């Protein structure tokens, strides 16, 4: 990055920012949070518009027209409030109708006339099985209705000593017919309001455009407010950053402006913004890196490593070719969902990786395809063997992948430390990397027979001696060697205990894949027990339901674990052993396209 310091008259500030915005390559140092009431209001408006777009997009149906209004966002919220009120009123009326319906064509005036004659009418309801037929003989009782398991009845009496073994209920306030008419009128209004809401979907492009303009204006306001004033507010000072490859273009355009600028190479202490330069494949995984944070300016971009190993770890945890095919279909379906469209390519890629690894693990919807006669013997030979050196093949492979991952992290740490601190100031890091990575490589060659065991032994001893010099003697060339030995012993304790735990952490890849496979197999077995020999056609229905629902649930749980745990292995084990620090900020040039 190149750092630019701009000096201009305060009156030219807005014009200058507009030109910088048109260039779209300068990241003006500015706030990303509200700084005053105006920016708070603009941010609130943008959030309201974003919410409106999401609500309208979620509505069913297609618009048949366009609602004419000054502000579709406010119209949406007004109609939404109206709809909520109408639905709430309808719910209350439905409850009222249910209470009035058993009493039929009820007339409150008739009850009042009877009461004026001294006759008290009382209302009751009771479970039909509790209704005593003797009551009809002992009391002036009339059954009004029997609905479901409830009996509704009334008594009429002028006896002042009247007593009945049930508690009476409130008399209905009106008849069911009136309530039904109110509901019918209300439903017409609900349909009309729902139609108006659907027609508001035609305003989505207008709202999206206004949303983009508001965010752009807010960004400009933040940039304008970021300037420092000098000479009694007559001079404004700005700071910005731009990629080195844009220097020639930017200088050419700046020379045309009435602005004084200072151009210099960005330094780590300036905390310049970070811009990734990745290919299309790796770019899909930048969202994962940003979940942890962008690197320091003198750091390294971990995304290429995450792209390879997260994909591999995810596929390990899923471990089923059938589940991979399902993920591929889900990924293509997500392309049609606006809010998840950007994630569709990543999901498809994870699905392809899962399908490949699942095939190598010879698992298809928890079935062992290595036993299928339709699979050629030549193809079966490339599948992972069940046992490697007497241990489960998947477990051994998980540990091997984990060791490679950690060794790569240590190499990255060594390269980055040498680049930033110089070789002599990185001897301790070189020592540990040489000892661990070198021993792993030599040991591997010895195991596969490339190196003789005796020769490998002496090479490892030599590596140990050279590594010990860097770890214990020269870990800090500016410090007393005795202090270096003490520091080296402490590092040895931490490395030995930490590295063992880190390697064992990769067993989770094996455990998650095994758990998913066993659960899927359990659903297959349950479905098989229900189906029997398959001669009963009716039993195919519960079989399909058990297997389908079981595998859908299993895919959901496996996908959750396959996302969280590989992320942990990258964020903790890899980042810790590679010395990754995430203190950087995103490159956000003024005038860049607003992503919704």
Any idea what the shape is? extended
Distance between the termini: 27 Å
- Average pLDDT, rounded to a whole number, is 87
Number of strands: 14
Integer tally of domains: 4
Specify the oligomeric state.
single chain
Structural class estimated from helices and strands? alpha+beta
Describe this structure in words.
With 596 residues, this protein is an alpha+beta fold. It folds into four domains: 129 residues; 65 residues, no CATH class; 184 residues, no CATH class; 103 residues. 59% of the residues lie in helices and 10% in strands. The strands form five sheets. Strands 1, 2, 6, 7 and 8 form a five-stranded antiparallel sheet that branches. Strand 6 and strand 7 form a beta hairpin. Helix 15 packs antiparallel against helix 16 and helix 15 packs parallel to helix 20.
Describe the structure concisely for a colleague.
With 596 residues, the protein is of the alpha+beta class. Helices cover 59% and strands 10% of the residues.
């Amino acid at each position: 990055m190149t750092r630019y310091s701009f000096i201009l008259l305060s009156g030219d500030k807005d014009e200058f920012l507009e030109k910088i915005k048109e260039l779209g390559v300068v990241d003006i140092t500015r706030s990303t949070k509200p700084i005053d009431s105006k920016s708070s209001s603009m941010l609130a408006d943008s959030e309201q518009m974003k919410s409106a777009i999401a609500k309208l997009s979620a509505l069913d149906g297609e618009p048949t027209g366009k609602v004419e209004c000054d502000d579709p966002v406010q119209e949406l919220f007004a109609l939404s409030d109206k709809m909520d009120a109408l639905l709430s009123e309808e719910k209350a009326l439905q409850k009222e109708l249910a209470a009035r319906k058993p009493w039929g064509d009820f007339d409150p005036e008739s009850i009042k006339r009877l009461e004026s004659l001294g006759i008290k009418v009382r209302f009751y309801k009771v479970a039909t099985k509790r209704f005593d037929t003797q009551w009809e003989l002992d009391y002036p009782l009339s059954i009004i209705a029997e609905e479901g398991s409830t009996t509704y009845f009334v008594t009429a009496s002028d006896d002042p000593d009247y007593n009945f073994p049930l508690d009476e209920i409130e008399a209905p306030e009106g008849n069911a017919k009136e309530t039904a008419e109110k509901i019918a009128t209300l439903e017409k209004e609900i349909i009309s309001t729902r139609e108006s809401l659907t027609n508001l979907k035609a305003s989505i492009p207008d709202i999206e455009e206004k949303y983009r303009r508001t965010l752009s204006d807010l960004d400009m306001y933040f940039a304008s407010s970021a300037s420092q004033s000098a000479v009694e507010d007559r001079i404004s000072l700005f700071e910005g950053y731009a990629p080195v490859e844009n220097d020639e273009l930017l200088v050419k355009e700046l020379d045309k402006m009435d602005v004084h600028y200072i151009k210099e190479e960005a330094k780590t202490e300036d905390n310049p913004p970070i811009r990734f330069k990745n290919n299309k494949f790796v770019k899909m995984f930048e969202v994962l890196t940003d979940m942890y944070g962008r690197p320091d300016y003198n750091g390294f971009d971990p995304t290429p490593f995450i792209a390879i190993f997260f994909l591999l770890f995810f596929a390990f945890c899923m471990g089923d070719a059938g589940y991979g095919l399902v993920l591929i279909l889900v990924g293509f379906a997500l392309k049609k969902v606006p809010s998840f469209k950007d994630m569709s390519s990543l999901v498809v890629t994870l699905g392809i990786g899962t399908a490949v690894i699942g095939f190598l693990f010879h698992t298809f919807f928890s079935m062992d395809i290595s036993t299928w006669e339709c699979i050629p013997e030549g193809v079966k030979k490339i599948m992972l063997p069940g046992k490697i050196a007497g241990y489960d093949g998947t477990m051994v492979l998980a540990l091997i992948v984990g060791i490679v991952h950690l060794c790569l992290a240590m190499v990255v740490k060594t390269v980055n430390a040498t680049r930033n601190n110089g070789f002599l100031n990185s001897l301790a890091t070189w020592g540990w990397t040489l000892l661990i990575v070198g021993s792993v490589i030599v040991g591997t060659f010895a195991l596969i027979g490339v190196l003789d065991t005796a020769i490998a032994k002496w090479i490892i001893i030599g590596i140990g001696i050279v590594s010990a010099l860097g770890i214990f003697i020269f870990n800090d060339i500016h410090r007393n060697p005795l202090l270096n030995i003490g520091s080296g012993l402490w590092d040895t304790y931490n490395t030995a205990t930490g590295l063992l735990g880190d390697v064992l952490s990769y067993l989770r890849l094996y455990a998650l894949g095994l758990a998913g496979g066993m659960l899927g197999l359990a659903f297959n077995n349950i479905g098989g027990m229900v189906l029997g020999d398959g001669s009963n056609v009716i039993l195919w229905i519960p079989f399909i339901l058990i297997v389908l629902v079981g595998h859908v649930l299993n895919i959901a749980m496996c996908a959750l674990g396959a996302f969280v745990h590989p992320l942990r292995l990258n964020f903790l084990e890899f980042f810790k052993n590679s010395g990754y620090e995430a203190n950087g900020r995103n490159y956000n040039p003024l005038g860049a396209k607003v992503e919704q």
